[in-house]
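Quick one before lunch.
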Amino acid sequence: MTKGNGRLAIVAGGAGFLGSHLTDLLLDRGYRVLCIDNLRTGRRDNLRHLEREPRFDLMEWDVIVPLPGKDQKRLRPAEIYNLACAASPPHYQSDPEHTMLTSVVGTRNLLRLAEGAGARFLQASTSEVYGDPDVHPQVETYWGNVNPTGPRACYDEGKRSAETLAFDFLRTGRVDVRVARIFNTYGPRMRADDGRVVSNIVCQALSGKPVTVYGDGSQTRSFCYVGDLIEGLNRLMDYGAPDLGPVNLGNPAELTVRDLVDRVVALTGSEATVVEAPLPVDDPRRRRPDITKARDRLGWEPRIGLDAGLRATIDWFAAEAERVVAEDFPRRRNGNGHAAMPAADGSA
Ligand code: NAD
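Model of the nicotinamide-adenine-dinucleotide complex:
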């Protein structure tokens, strides 16, 4: 039997980009999986392929609200992964109060569920806890440089508070906790509309629209392919001793946003032009994880290079665009029952 051995893993935020890939990996490894998701930024489509999987279930629920008492008693998860929280700035800033409460109240509710069940708990934290960092690359011992009152604070400070709660539950012996500080991750199932740098650039390049670079594009990021990241989360959960403290998971290969644009434009064969837009408030200048701890303790490091990861992502977005057009086609039939013909410029 594979290592999950039919045990139950709960993935909060399981209908999202990372959560749906994690769900696939856990099912592959023999777990039963219950995703808990309010579907605010996640999509049923991300889990559609599991509709007939008897070991999988999706519960539409907001983690800010404790699970009903009967479910708290009935569910005996061995592991809880807490990925619930909108991750892209336009989404988490659209309802900052909900974002903060998700990280604070939602994390507390899930920690209490883990406590009741004796489950191991993994909190998906973020490189944003380092804010606009004075230390480069970012190592886990760095306490960060976060603006606590700016528009990103609902996310950054919410995640910092979630870490605090998780380590308090650990320190007091209530829950066996792991904390992953995730750096920019990309890949299939990102949303085209979520305003993250890779999805923005890929979608614009594929559609031939001008590609937007915020600022002059000299800010740096380090991009990790989703398959690598998910493997890291699972290894961290499996790690025997909870004395690790937070662990950075990301790809240390750093490049400027401008370089990323050039790579995507070359890989898509696009002739898109590049336009500059103002840099968002509190946008970090540099981002690169020090992954020494993950390498030494988990034996983990990313294996997928940027070009291979970008190709897989570009192929997925291209296929997705075709699928959406094909599914939309019947809805675009005109009143005579005839399919509406595209106009000469390609628009319907
Ligand atoms: P995502 O927005 O695709 O997924 C988040 C999921 O959580 C969605 O399915 C959403 O509907 C759900 N959710 C949000 N609030 C909820 C609530 N109150 N109750 C129940 N469900 C809720 O984002 P993602 O990229 O998959 O990120 C997953 C996690 O990883 C997040 O916690 C994020 O902070 C963290 N993270 C992601 C990245 C990245 O690059 N993708 C980087 C750092 C940290």
